[in-house]
Design a protein that fits this description.
This protein has 100 residues and is of the alpha/beta class. It has three helices and seven strands; from the N terminus they run αβββαββαββ. The strands form three sheets. The chain has a three-stranded parallel beta sheet with strand order 1-4-6, covered by helices on one side. The longest helix is centred in the C-terminal third of the chain and has 22 residues. It starts with a helix and ends in a 6-residue tail after the last strand.
Length: 100
Protein backbone atom coordinates (compact mmCIF):
# COMPACT_ATOMS: atom_id res chain seq x y z
CA UNK A 1 0.00 0.00 0.00
CA UNK A 2 1.05 3.43 0.99
CA UNK A 3 -0.29 6.87 0.17
CA UNK A 4 1.10 6.89 -3.36
CA UNK A 5 -0.81 3.69 -4.20
CA UNK A 6 -3.97 5.13 -2.61
CA UNK A 7 -3.73 8.28 -4.74
CA UNK A 8 -3.21 6.19 -7.89
CA UNK A 9 -6.32 4.09 -7.27
CA UNK A 10 -8.52 5.08 -4.32
CA UNK A 11 -10.92 2.35 -3.21
CA UNK A 12 -13.40 4.58 -1.35
CA UNK A 13 -15.19 7.87 -1.92
CA UNK A 14 -16.85 10.51 0.22
CA UNK A 15 -20.61 10.98 -0.15
CA UNK A 16 -20.93 14.60 0.89
CA UNK A 17 -24.19 16.46 1.50
CA UNK A 18 -22.35 19.77 1.46
CA UNK A 19 -25.27 22.12 1.08
CA UNK A 20 -28.05 23.43 3.30
CA UNK A 21 -30.72 24.31 0.76
CA UNK A 22 -31.33 26.77 -0.62
CA UNK A 23 -27.88 27.59 -1.99
CA UNK A 24 -25.85 27.67 1.24
CA UNK A 25 -22.82 25.54 2.06
CA UNK A 26 -22.59 23.64 5.36
CA UNK A 27 -19.25 24.72 6.86
CA UNK A 28 -18.57 21.44 8.68
CA UNK A 29 -19.28 19.35 5.57
CA UNK A 30 -17.03 21.62 3.50
CA UNK A 31 -14.17 21.16 5.95
CA UNK A 32 -14.56 17.37 5.71
CA UNK A 33 -14.71 17.62 1.91
CA UNK A 34 -11.50 19.71 1.87
CA UNK A 35 -9.61 17.09 3.91
CA UNK A 36 -10.83 14.28 1.65
CA UNK A 37 -10.01 16.15 -1.56
CA UNK A 38 -6.52 17.03 -0.33
CA UNK A 39 -6.10 13.37 0.69
CA UNK A 40 -6.95 12.15 -2.82
CA UNK A 41 -10.40 10.71 -2.08
CA UNK A 42 -13.01 11.12 -4.85
CA UNK A 43 -16.16 12.95 -3.73
CA UNK A 44 -19.85 12.47 -4.50
CA UNK A 45 -21.38 15.94 -4.39
CA UNK A 46 -24.94 15.45 -3.13
CA UNK A 47 -27.46 18.27 -3.15
CA UNK A 48 -30.82 17.07 -1.83
CA UNK A 49 -33.39 19.84 -1.64
CA UNK A 50 -37.05 19.08 -1.05
CA UNK A 51 -39.33 20.50 -3.72
CA UNK A 52 -41.87 22.74 -2.05
CA UNK A 53 -39.88 23.03 1.18
CA UNK A 54 -36.18 23.89 0.64
CA UNK A 55 -36.32 24.25 -3.15
CA UNK A 56 -38.93 25.48 -5.64
CA UNK A 57 -42.15 23.44 -5.77
CA UNK A 58 -41.91 22.79 -9.51
CA UNK A 59 -39.76 19.88 -10.63
CA UNK A 60 -37.91 22.08 -13.13
CA UNK A 61 -37.13 24.67 -10.44
CA UNK A 62 -35.95 22.02 -7.98
CA UNK A 63 -33.66 20.42 -10.58
CA UNK A 64 -32.20 23.82 -11.53
CA UNK A 65 -31.45 24.60 -7.87
CA UNK A 66 -29.84 21.19 -7.26
CA UNK A 67 -27.70 21.55 -10.38
CA UNK A 68 -26.61 25.06 -9.33
CA UNK A 69 -25.63 23.75 -5.89
CA UNK A 70 -23.67 20.84 -7.41
CA UNK A 71 -21.92 23.15 -9.89
CA UNK A 72 -20.89 25.41 -7.00
CA UNK A 73 -19.47 22.40 -5.14
CA UNK A 74 -17.66 21.25 -8.28
CA UNK A 75 -16.06 24.70 -8.58
CA UNK A 76 -15.13 24.58 -4.87
CA UNK A 77 -13.56 21.13 -5.31
CA UNK A 78 -11.55 22.35 -8.28
CA UNK A 79 -10.32 25.36 -6.32
CA UNK A 80 -8.88 22.96 -3.73
CA UNK A 81 -7.31 20.52 -6.25
CA UNK A 82 -7.82 21.29 -9.95
CA UNK A 83 -9.19 18.30 -11.86
CA UNK A 84 -9.98 16.27 -8.72
CA UNK A 85 -12.42 13.37 -9.34
CA UNK A 86 -15.96 14.31 -8.34
CA UNK A 87 -19.39 12.88 -9.08
CA UNK A 88 -22.18 15.35 -9.87
CA UNK A 89 -25.10 14.27 -7.65
CA UNK A 90 -28.27 16.39 -7.74
CA UNK A 91 -30.96 14.52 -5.82
CA UNK A 92 -34.22 16.49 -5.59
CA UNK A 93 -36.95 15.16 -3.30
CA UNK A 94 -40.64 15.99 -3.30
CA UNK A 95 -42.54 16.93 -0.14
CA UNK A 96 -46.28 16.71 0.27
CA UNK A 97 -46.98 20.10 1.83
CA UNK A 98 -50.17 18.74 3.44
CA UNK A 99 -48.52 15.88 5.33
CA UNK A 100 -44.78 16.69 5.38
Amino acid sequence: GGEDKWRERPFASLSCCFVVPPLRFAEDACRVMEVCVRGGMPVLLLAAGQAGATSPASLAGAVVQECAECLAALAYTNLIVPGHPAIFGPWPFVSDLRTG
